[in-house]
Specification:
Oligomer: single chain
CATH architecture of the largest domain: 2-Layer Sandwich
Structural class: alpha+beta
Number of strands: 15
Mean pLDDT: 90
Low-confidence stretches: 81-93
Number of domains: 2
Number of helices: 7
Helix content: 25-40%
Amino acid sequence: MSTPSASPSATELLALAQEAARAAADLVRERAARTVEVAATKSTDTDVVTEADRASEDLIRRIVAAKRPDDAFLGEEGGQSDGQSDGQSEGQTEGRSGVRWIVDPIDGTVNFLYGIARYAVSVAAERDGEVVAGVVIDVPHGIEFTGYRAADGAIVSRREGKQIQVAAPAPLGKRLVATGFGYDAALRRLQAQCLVRLLPQVRDIRRAGSCALDVCDVAQGTFDGYLEEGVHVWDHAAAGLIAQGAGARVEVATGLGGGRLLLVAPEHGFDELRTAALGAGYFAEA
């Protein structure tokens, strides 16, 4: 049995996350130039997996394991690994080092499948249960967002190496809010009903198809908020850290349909948007 890896700094974890994410982004970009086909479906017939999803996650897993073999790994396509040398999924085992990697090999797979230039590779690193480093790469445009938690607890968030911040305060009626819809038809029906109630209260709604990039767009001030039920931790682990470092608040709650509801908005306007979302019915009843 190998000795668990020493506790790494957030910047060390970020460097490895960047290495893995960049390699995966190159792979996904190369696969996008070919004919993309569905390899499998998951929760519904519209919840698809491509061969590129699997190849991207496998590459990230191998790059991380080569340098940190004792870390746990949570990937959208391959489940959790406990850091054993065979790299196989081991359910909920958390590894031996206190570090867990949370990976979405292609966030926005449907966009990727249809040739729509809105998808990302997302890699985050948790240390003792707290996300301390993350990178999101906008693959078609080659844009890299990063975040890491400094020794003093502050989060440093950057886009292409330059610090970013959320949008300036604006009345609720002037805010552009991003959202998404689930794969299950019953959930989409509920989401549509909530959207009808929220839409008249904001400037407009955008649905672009990548949770990670939508949250990064809140971080850089493009969107004034984001909310969606049905997301998973790999969708927002890296982007949520980046958003917090840019001045946003991130809340994970239970949505109307019983799934994970993610709400992200600038700290200065978070409570007002949350109240509107609550009134529109997005949250499960208390």
